[in-house]
Amino acid sequence: MTRAAIDQVGLDTGKQARLHDILYRNGLRNGTAIFLPYDQGLEHGPRDFFANPAASDPRYVLDLAVEGGFNGVVLQIGLAEKFFAEYAGEIPLVLKLNGKTDIPPDGEALSPLHASVEDAVRLGAHAVGYTLYVGTPAVESDFAQYRQVRADARRLGMPLIVWAYPRGSAIEAKGGKDSFYAVDYAARTASELGADVVKVNFPHPEKREHVKAEYDTGFSARQAIDAVVRSANRTMLLVSGGTRAGDEAMLEKARQSMEAGATGLIFGRNVWQREHDESLRFVERLRGILEKFPVPARSR
Amino acid sequence: MTRAAIDQVGLDTGKQARLHDILYRNGLRNGTAIFLPYDQGLEHGPRDFFANPAASDPRYVLDLAVEGGFNGVVLQIGLAEKFFAEYAGEIPLVLKLNGKTDIPPDGEALSPLHASVEDAVRLGAHAVGYTLYVGTPAVESDFAQYRQVRADARRLGMPLIVWAYPRGSAIEAKGGKDSFYAVDYAARTASELGADVVKVNFPHPEKREHVKAEYDTGFSARQAIDAVVRSANRTMLLVSGGTRAGDEAMLEKARQSMEAGATGLIFGRNVWQREHDESLRFVERLRGILEKFPVPARSR
Amino acid sequence: MTRAAIDQVGLDTGKQARLHDILYRNGLRNGTAIFLPYDQGLEHGPRDFFANPAASDPRYVLDLAVEGGFNGVVLQIGLAEKFFAEYAGEIPLVLKLNGKTDIPPDGEALSPLHASVEDAVRLGAHAVGYTLYVGTPAVESDFAQYRQVRADARRLGMPLIVWAYPRGSAIEAKGGKDSFYAVDYAARTASELGADVVKVNFPHPEKREHVKAEYDTGFSARQAIDAVVRSANRTMLLVSGGTRAGDEAMLEKARQSMEAGATGLIFGRNVWQREHDESLRFVERLRGILEKFPVPARSR
Amino acid sequence: MTRAAIDQVGLDTGKQARLHDILYRNGLRNGTAIFLPYDQGLEHGPRDFFANPAASDPRYVLDLAVEGGFNGVVLQIGLAEKFFAEYAGEIPLVLKLNGKTDIPPDGEALSPLHASVEDAVRLGAHAVGYTLYVGTPAVESDFAQYRQVRADARRLGMPLIVWAYPRGSAIEAKGGKDSFYAVDYAARTASELGADVVKVNFPHPEKREHVKAEYDTGFSARQAIDAVVRSANRTMLLVSGGTRAGDEAMLEKARQSMEAGATGLIFGRNVWQREHDESLRFVERLRGILEKFPVPARSR
Amino acid sequence: MTRAAIDQVGLDTGKQARLHDILYRNGLRNGTAIFLPYDQGLEHGPRDFFANPAASDPRYVLDLAVEGGFNGVVLQIGLAEKFFAEYAGEIPLVLKLNGKTDIPPDGEALSPLHASVEDAVRLGAHAVGYTLYVGTPAVESDFAQYRQVRADARRLGMPLIVWAYPRGSAIEAKGGKDSFYAVDYAARTASELGADVVKVNFPHPEKREHVKAEYDTGFSARQAIDAVVRSANRTMLLVSGGTRAGDEAMLEKARQSMEAGATGLIFGRNVWQREHDESLRFVERLRGILEKFPVPARSR
């Protein structure tokens, strides 16, 4: 699928300006993007840093983001306020507006707000992030929070990146959060509800237990990611690295995603859970893939 | 039943202006209407597009709406913001203000708000849509949302179309969501609570298990739809196509509804879940029915 | 100069939708427009109706607007609320938001607000009108009013037509309100301050007394109107008929304006200050001019 | 005087981020700046374009800003909304929040607000501009407007550039708006009242008639600009080109300003009131000066 | 780990001013701190005063805070309003904004707000305290309260001290509230969510039952507190005394904490649950430890 230029997808001036900066004045400057998320200290706790204790220090990760040529770094409000000033202007900030710990069970998952779109503006961020738990029974609170975020993001010209995560007891009962069924539905939900960019996990068509009948057939991984990109239509798609896994498998997924029409990648633990130079080498391989999928900056 | 002219049903100037545009400057221009809803990607997920993958692309469906001579197209906020500008002025937009996925169970169904009447005004929409889950235990949140929507729609002269859907565990226990009992009650609820237009499913008088005694007798389908139109009184009534079914049965229901005094139809999956030209042929047959039920634009 | 399509001039979805309706679903439906203003009863008093007393009745003028195939009619809030419902949907309404009598002298001219953009939305209007007195010493109040109108119009997707009228003692001392200098400055001011459409009087390059040196040379009428259209850049330009004058001169000015790149005309007294059928014949001649300057509805 | 790094002057994260982008990711990327102001169509009228009619088209000037390697372009809200989307991300926007025509006399000069800091955020601007008429009798309205702008700019992390213009009858009576006395006082006023950047005209120490005694001595031009930079202290200083004048004199003033510690220049008419290639050659000479005054991006 | 100076950790002016006062004009005036919390009457009830009934009188404890050379005293709103005026200016007040009794079980622990940041300003407090129950199922309410407190503290320049307490059924099932796993996660959560100072219990690495695998290895106490300080990064860390325990063990924990990079201690019951002079002697020993870990007031 051909990726659309950012002036073709119904974006206001401010969102265009900030996305243009992310996509054409950072990273490979070719319209693709790779983001470095760094909110796992909240989402999973400091245990995620045990593989590489240096990564516990936000400066280590921010330096990595700059050195590695990332298009943006994702932080929660606390780290953004304490650390971003020193990197302001050197790399775009995506302020993650909600988040939660992984301590209570996920059956009725909800990710409470910690910051506002106005906080993001104040900090000079280039985009905001919101985790939407598609399928959670706590949907009323989740959608109410989201609605305000979406309206504020539109009012202030701030691109909205939705972490579209299938979650909750009903999802667990229908193929789980990584099934093709769940990921496809999550991508479409983000698009229908006005995300500018959507982050999804790579879909697993082989996870078919109790999914809707339409998904219970022999789709290939490539067919699945193709469908997910179509479901997202004009919402740009980022594929998440998730738990650190084998490099070759990760790179293959990244390649398939870009071929399917994704805009880019969002890789955290796969990057900073290894030694510094090894991180950079891995990022270089990811960039090598993105390099092959340039998107023109303007449609005319 | 004779349909009233729009200057006879207590509407303010702005609502009259917008409805006149929908009913007399679009579609057959004879006071009837056929709407194309396209929010199933959220309500049911992308699986609804598997029958005709082209329909996953909003542009395909918007083109169909223009080519088919529909009176309006129904979109959620995300697709409206990303796609409608290209069709603005060519077909009226009905902005659907609330919506939900079908992932969690429906026992306490609630459709959270995603957009405001002011969003609809800003996008140049001709009407707003709201799903009211008549009978749900989550009635407090549902009616609270609805109350605000109704008040805003009145303040801004925006016609309010209510998707009056019987839903929730108590409905399931009393004949189900398509029973004559449930549909009739839903139509009346919308009318009592100030809808300008109400969308209902075609009533099934044969679904009588555990319905109130008054409905537990031998009503015909025609008697049922007559009653539903009377229950709606000055609230214009649209009959929904629902899940794709046999064409002849659908056309017969459409004919009976118009004879009963309905203002029109709202058919989505029955239209775009087939191949393009076949869609247009089916729409042509629906228009052939509407053609026979003109309503004068002015009462004097 | 080539007129731009309405999807090329930086307009939001709602403004595009409403302008598309005015320009392509009314009048000649070719992207040009002719408006019928009817606020002279306030601006000049009933004396304007003495030439044709029938025109004192708003219905007479509204009927004329429909019969004559105008693209819109301009009313103050009082007449809009009392008369527009009967014409709603048949012709676009431009709600004039401010206005004043001509009783006090114009040295410190200010046109106070009488209605809001929200009133226009509520009445189903397609645009709002605001008189900006460019050059008036009362600029602080004028710009403060205008700023709120502009912001509301943007928020609600309502096209903003600015009556850009040079006025005040300083203007009188520098060539007067119809001088090329004054009209050119007024068109630019409207464009710089965010008008979507600007209404100007036809510029008089021969009025050179005390104008800025740059304008004190031998410009032709055609050169003047060309310059004014350029000064307005992406703000669509309407040329006003003003005081009723000789038909051939009026038609020549209309032709020159359209050749220069104007979007259309706004003619009131020249139309309704004559007998009914004569009015329609004159309008027909104006339409004959507009017919020759079609603008494509979409740039792609 | 040594220019301070932007992390040493008491700026919040967002202001640092946006200024870093302006100063180190645009133009010469060395901490100096040259801005292209384009609001003269409002401030003086279209006559400013007569020397080079192409400059009447905002696209011409925006293209020039990109080609010439400016650090930012200054627009009023109307042109920003209609034209900036096409350049978004390619050059920083400074949204000028207030402005006026030059038609009424300047004795009680006041520049009314036309847009808000929130508009600037929404459009993805990098800074806002406000004209403060230092010395005007209309000081109450002026300072009241300014106070709100300053507070909003702080709340939203938006750098505030103050056009510090001595103006009004009292200034005319004491040496005039370009006197060393007036410019020095204006620079200090901006600093005392919280400007992040101040734009001043080059001071004329020889304009001594009726100035305060302290200024009525034989200061050199260099002494004057040195003093003005000191008066501005941590408020970065931009020197304005003003009316187009002889190139060598302009370049000499630019050089003296940078030697004195100015951050950069803001040149409009001197640039675009000449033929295209000649404009670029003149800009190249200005850049040649700025090149010699780099400021490190971080203090540590 | 080297403690950062307060001008290096991303704090606004007001927070810097208040923290400088706490850290360099009170206590040892060397950048370390020891706080005296006195909200146990609410949190545990008067039973905490039975060991030393004199401590039931707030004046007794406030006198002790002054005599002992504490850097601040922590009070709930009621005691602050009734008693602090008499000590105002003699010792900094930390107003604890939320609190609860220990009567209901802690499975869904939530500490409701009793006062606002504005109350703290009004009382001349130097900081506010908030108890965040990390891991509680009542996370939605807890984070919503906290979010408002954080935003208000930022707006008003008030340092925010977070009592980061692991709590709730899920915590009890995974090692308990004092486990290294739980304390480490709590410190990080406070840092990610924008605490300026975080109060934690000393971590117990030997509590390993059902903790995440990463923590289920043989960490020493010193390794644990080192990790917790790193997890808190630029959020200053205070170690809590908790339930009164053996003095030598307490002092050893204090020493290890300071060596690890903590900013100070917060000791209540260990201090005032003994006889007056003995309290002072114990405090003197704590100060003897802090004396060895000075932090420079300015980084340059």
Describe this structure in a few short sentences.
5 copies of one chain form a homopentamer. Chain A is an alpha/beta fold and 300 residues long. Chain A is built from 12 helices and 8 strands.
Structure report:
The structure is a homopentamer of 300-residue chains. Chain A is an alpha/beta fold and 300 residues long. Chain A has one domain (6-290): TIM Barrel, CATH 3.20.20. In chain A, 40% of the residues lie in helices and 14% in strands. The first copy, chain A, has helices at residues 13-24, 40-43, 58-67, 77-83, 117-122, 139-156, 169-172, 180-192, 221-232, 247-260, 269-272, 276-290; strands at residues 33-37, 72-75, 93-96, 127-134, 160-166, 197-201, 236-240, 264-266. Chain A has an eight-stranded parallel β-barrel, surrounded by seven helices. The radius of gyration of chain A is 18 Å and the shape is globular. In chain A, 66% of the residues are buried. The mean pLDDT of chain A is 95. The A-B interface holds A 9-10, 134-137, 139-140, 143-144, 146-147, 150-151, 154, 166, 168, 170-171, 174, 181, 184-185, 187-195, 212-215, 227, 230-231, 233-235 and B 39, 41-42, 45-47, 49-50, 53, 56-58, 76-79, 81-85, 99-101, 103-105, 110, 112-116, 119, 138, 141.
